[in-house]
Amino acid sequence: GCSGSGETGGSSSGDSNGGGGESVSVVLKTLSSPYWKYVEAGAKAAGEEFGVDVTVVGPAAESEVIQQVNMLEDQVSQSPGAILVAPSQPETVVPVLENASSSGLPVLLIDTDVEFEGKTTFIGTENFTAGQEGGKLLASMLEKGDKVVLISGALGNPATDERIKGAKEALEAAGMEVVAEQPADSDKAKAMSVMENILQNDKDIKGVFAANDDMAIGVLRAVQAENLDVKVIGTDGTEEAVQSILDGKLAGTIAQSPYNMGYQGVENALKVMKGESIDERIDAGIDIITKENAQEQLDFLKSISE
Amino acid sequence: MKGIKKSFGSNHVLKGIDLDVKAAEVHVLLGENGAGKSTFIKILTGAYEKDAGEIYWEGEKVQLNNPIDAMNLGIATIYQELNVIPELKVYENIFLGRELKQGGKFSMLDRKAMITEAKRCLSLLGQKTELAEMELGELGIGQQQLVEIAKALALDAKLIIMDEPTSSLSAQEVEQLYSCVEGLVEKGIAIVFISHRLEEIKRMGNRITILRDGYKIDTLPVKDTDPDYWIELMVGRSLDEKFPKQSFTLGEEGFRIENMLVEGTEQPVNFSVNYGEIVGFSGLVGAGRTELARAIFGADPRNKDAKILIDGQEVQIKNPRDAIDAGIAFITEDRKSEGLLLDQAADINIALANMKGFQNKAKLINLKDIRAKAEEYIKELQIRPNNIELHARNFSGGNQQKVVIAKWLCTQAKVFIFDEPTRGIDVGAKVEVYRLMNQLVENGSIVMMISSDLPEILGMCDRVYVMSEGKITANLPIHEASQERIMKAATGG
Amino acid sequence: MSQIIVDKKQENITEKKTIKTYLAKLAPLLALILLSGILTFLSDKFLTVNNLMNIARQSSINALLAIGMLLPILTAGIDLSVGSILAVSIMIMGIVSVSMSLNPVLGIIVCLAVGAGFGLLNGVLLTKLRLPHPFISTLGTQFIGRGIALLVTAAAPIAGFPYIIQFVGREFVGPIPVSFILVIFVYVVMHIFLTRTQTGRYIYAIGGNPEAARLSGIKVDRVLIIVYTISGFMAGLAGLVMVGRVNSAFPLAGVTYELDAIAAVIIGGASFLGGVGTVAGTLIGAMIIAVLRNGLNLLNVSADSQMALIGVVIIAAVYVDVLRQRKKRK
Amino acid sequence: MSQIIVDKKQENITEKKTIKTYLAKLAPLLALILLSGILTFLSDKFLTVNNLMNIARQSSINALLAIGMLLPILTAGIDLSVGSILAVSIMIMGIVSVSMSLNPVLGIIVCLAVGAGFGLLNGVLLTKLRLPHPFISTLGTQFIGRGIALLVTAAAPIAGFPYIIQFVGREFVGPIPVSFILVIFVYVVMHIFLTRTQTGRYIYAIGGNPEAARLSGIKVDRVLIIVYTISGFMAGLAGLVMVGRVNSAFPLAGVTYELDAIAAVIIGGASFLGGVGTVAGTLIGAMIIAVLRNGLNLLNVSADSQMALIGVVIIAAVYVDVLRQRKKRK
Ligand SMILES: Nc1ncnc2c1ncn2[C@@H]1O[C@H](COP(=O)(O)OP(=O)(O)OP(=O)(O)O)[C@@H](O)[C@H]1O
Ligand SMILES: Nc1ncnc2c1ncn2[C@@H]1O[C@H](COP(=O)(O)OP(=O)(O)OP(=O)(O)O)[C@@H](O)[C@H]1O
Ligand SMILES: [Mg+2]
Ligand SMILES: [Mg+2]
């Protein structure tokens, strides 16, 4: 289920009506992962529905933090009607956003929040909360005292770090024993290797929480190879993960409704541009996806990626 | 210097050498390739650490740990291998390591002063002063050598060491160097001079020290002794003749070049070589002999209408591979940059141009054959040490040259183009190379020799082409050739 | 008399040489043994058949990339694009064999061909455009490859590969992973290629002295193109193993893998200046890295100290080699 | 008579030389002008004071890293650790001036000192341990630096720096960003350093022929240590600018920045083989990269196509230089 990447670039601004007013600029952490593609899809859908130019940009990788700030500056200097931002390193965008909002540009944050003067709203769910939910979900499948493992992303990535923190708190609160916490750089193959190694130490592991779905799937491969019954929970709710849940492999994933974030972001930006007032905090909601609701989610994902 | 010893691993190169140099003398070091001359002077300049021995300077014992110590004492050195920085200007090369500054230690460089001084040194060597501000890499190898000499002159040293400074110079520049050295000696400066050219030793040297296998054999006054005696001391036996010229009956024409344009000239070059003769190419540095050879060999681009004929058949040569396949061997003049894989074993170096010849049916290379072949050449050319696994870098200059020659012998070529084949090799080895040329001619090969060493041209060739500015200005049978006639043609007249 | 002296000297050198040769082959192995010793001491799980097979399997992707990387490094070059090439290869294989459901064998061929094709591009850019250093051409294709990998499916991963494609990365023969058998096979072939074929020797020659190589009749450009093509091919092959391991292709696969591959080659005793390096050394280099990462996981070393430790081990492993060489020279 | 012939030839060469020199300086500039022309044509936003100042500001971090990187490259080396050094420097500055609330000026000094200190470490590892190539020592410190940056605050970012620290990266003099003024100042100083001081010339000499440099009495090790220390110092300075721009320090700052810095230096006409490269060229190289990224953003080119395009432009920019050099040689 993949199409329509080419038009990402050409969608706006080329036809020189980027004169402001009627356009919304969206700056994401990256556009190189399915999760952010869903956000993009949501934003574009809203743009089409409300008849407004939506420009979605993002660096090639989440680690390109300053590149994101540059993109933000470049977008701001094109004076759009409103700007939506999902900051990779929250604090880094503050100076630019303060400048932008002080010159009257509405600034909406999505996915990841940060405090600054003149913020319009935040739409999303805290990563910490998502991690907590994941931890709770995992704990609910296990028994007190069971051994669990945490697989983090590249250390220093605030999104995955926060998820791990949340999950750890929830798991420990539920009386689970965290026997290992290792990074796998959000890389499927690395996650698999890391899990294989952890299993060398201890075959008695009952559950794993991974800070994103790619790593969860890598972990799952390692577990399956050993024919162990380990519950693996991921985060993000990608199509691949949902499919795996449906197949009875992955135990669950925490989806942060990326599509909704994009959609609601543009929707609310337009409201602000029209002078309507909106809430300072809009919860995009979390979907806890398990075997029960996986089919539904899969259908939804397929519908939006077409 | 007293009792200097040095070994590389278990290779004992210097086994206790004493040497004293007086002010205002030219002290010559003579020895076979690999005798340890360069190693010895590198210890003297602090470039190598010595294993044992003492060094005295003006009566006092000194410790030389690095080249700076030696420079501070007033020892300037021209190493055997060119030690210049191609990316820097000529004047910067001349002052490298002891730049002139406008003020104190951390002040800016005084470029003007350096350029002025550099020009003075260059003109001492009879060179155009404009050279000073050119990038060194744009000069030919001979001119680069002259810059090295200028560098030593600029140091105002009390002792100047010259390790084969003349090996890449032609007669004219060598003359300049002689008069320059004479001037230095008059000023009371001591010179240590290493050369394999006996006639220049005779002409310039005051005393001569002969080394053999890491031992000092003797120190003699130059005036009262005979070069043949030096050779005897040096190689341990007497050498019958320096140029073992053999004459063969002149055969048919085997190699012919038509309409070859050397870059930068309009007049095409035509020449031919017959079986049974050795044909020399003489000329000044930069006359275009190397360029001509490279163009023939397909190493440089050349004009389209040039023709190369072997045995009357035209051969198409677009690159060195074609040339080798057509049976041409080109023994390049700069063994380090164009000839050797310095960090690979001698046997691989020898086999390199003829890997195909060592393939078995499965297209795999037979390493044993390579080793056997290499052993054969090492014996035949008396390469020392006779270790085929030694990396090319660790052979002395002359033995490196022999490895390069072995490489080309290995291709079983028909046409041999030697470019300065005896550059930097000792008298004994030279004779071996000459014998080898004789043998090649005898066995039906075509032999051409580019050389800046006039005695060698006169002594070994049957015919000589003289080049000037990319053109052939004379074609002389050897009985008509003389130093004067060749020089006249070489300078364009 | 002098003749006798000379002979003795030479005998001596030859003798020394054989010991040297053994030592030289032992060098990176020393670092590996040292590291393994430490880990055996620290974790009783380390020296088990199971774990060793684990390491064998985990090292295979990097081992394949590293043996490809050895070639450019032998020619005094580098290939920064292997990670990206891996990604494009598997994404296109995914499109062919999953999205388009074509024959899986065709998929494998496409994967290897795309890898080799990108490598060929690297070689052609370097030699035909006469770019000054492969750092530039391969940095360029690193970006281009990654861009294409992202473009072809709009950044979506592809899962559900047929068994035949997964076979190499997934299956075992007895306790031994097929991927490791593949690695050994590839290494043996490459060893023969580099030491016993004309092109192989030419690769060393070009690294040692490109001008001398050219004047010895070696078609330098042709050999360089072969070198980068093989490197790209190995990236495709590593991709095949990766897909087998994780049963999916994703466009960010292989990010920064070039660094691990380069580290393996250099730890294995090769030189950036070209002409020096062996196949066996490279294998040991790849094993050192795999053992290190395995050990860090076994010991549950905290994530933040892992980075620093890897850095220290890279330097230490190369330093062991430096020390040995220095001793040899004494 | 022969004297005259020689004279003529040399005059010719000298004359050719001056034209060459001008051409050489024009080369990367040509690529920059070409690129800017295309962008002006494609986007009316490009050639505005506002946007140009944007570019000036955005280029400054990479420009500082690149001028530091120029020095190792001039010596035929490389510094892969600059991104990590940047990260450690700013994290420790954060701890000093935010967490511990010490004097902000002290914070700045610490930031630069940490940068220079890590550079010094690179130099010492390279020269004293005699590691075979700076690729290894700086790859090692890349990991070590990143590890330490992650360790010091357990991977947490630090925000809320005092104004004095933010000043350079944030403020303007008229429309001109202070960071760009700093860049110009640093470049002028480095130009003088490299062309007019002894150490500066030694850097070129070592790159050209290290053995000759040593035999000419240059203390090669000392110069190399200076080179890597300056490179580290520049990373610290770039960190200071970054903190000013984003008012925060985070441990993953500067990941892969070394590639942009290297690209800038090479696009600017320097050679990996050492001895060749200029300060002006490096500035132009850094500007080309900044203009390119800015242009792609202005044109809303998608991230994946951006990647591919950047790859193409890197190759093209260097190729322009190659073409020019080829013409020069004719
Ligand atoms: N770095 C080294 N490592 C090992 N052996 C070396 C090294 N340098 C020189 N040698 C050996 O030392 C011996 C003496 O070499 P040296 O260069 O001093 O000879 P030379 O008398 O200058 O000869 P030539 O006339 O050919 O220049 C040779 O056998 C050479 O192989
Ligand atoms: N690398 C170089 N760069 C620029 N000019 C060069 C270079 N090498 C040689 N030249 C010039 O090319 C011309 C021809 O040189 P060539 O080497 O062919 O002369 P030659 O007759 O072989 O002299 P030699 O006695 O030095 O071998 C000379 O003017 C020389 O200065
Ligand atoms: Mg010598
Ligand atoms: Mg010549």
TrEMBL record, chain B:
Q: Which UniProt keywords apply?
A: ATP-binding, Cell membrane, Membrane, Nucleotide-binding, Repeat, Sugar transport, Translocase, Transport
- Which residue ranges does the record assign to the ABC transporter domain? 1-238, 250-489
Q: Which residues form the signal peptide?
A: none
- Show the GO MF annotations: ATP binding
Q: Which Pfam families match?
A: ABC_tran
Q: Spell out the coiled coil positions from the record.
A: none
**Alphabetical list of InterPro entries matching this protein:** AAA+_ATPase (IPR003593), ABC_carbohydrate_import_ATPase (IPR050107), ABC_transporter-like_ATP-bd (IPR003439), ABC_transporter-like_CS (IPR017871), P-loop_NTPase (IPR027417)
Q: Does the keyword Transport apply?
A: yes
| SMART domains on file | AAA (SM00382)
Q: Which protein is depicted? A: Sugar ABC transporter ATP-binding protein
Q: Which organism is it from?
A: Metabacillus endolithicus
From TrEMBL, chains C, D:
In which domain of life is the source organism classified?
Bacteria
Q: What is its main location?
A: membrane
Subcellular location(s) per record = Cell membrane
Signal peptide positions on this chain:
none
Kindly give the CDD domains that the UniProt entry links to this protein: TM_PBP1_transp_AraH_like
Keyword tags:
Cell inner membrane, Cell membrane, Membrane, Transmembrane, Transmembrane helix, Transport
Where does the chain cross the membrane? 21-43, 55-73, 80-99, 105-126, 147-166, 172-194, 223-243, 272-293, 305-323
Q: How does it sit in the membrane?
A: Multi-pass membrane protein
- Provide the protein name: ABC transporter permease
Species this chain originates from? Metabacillus endolithicus
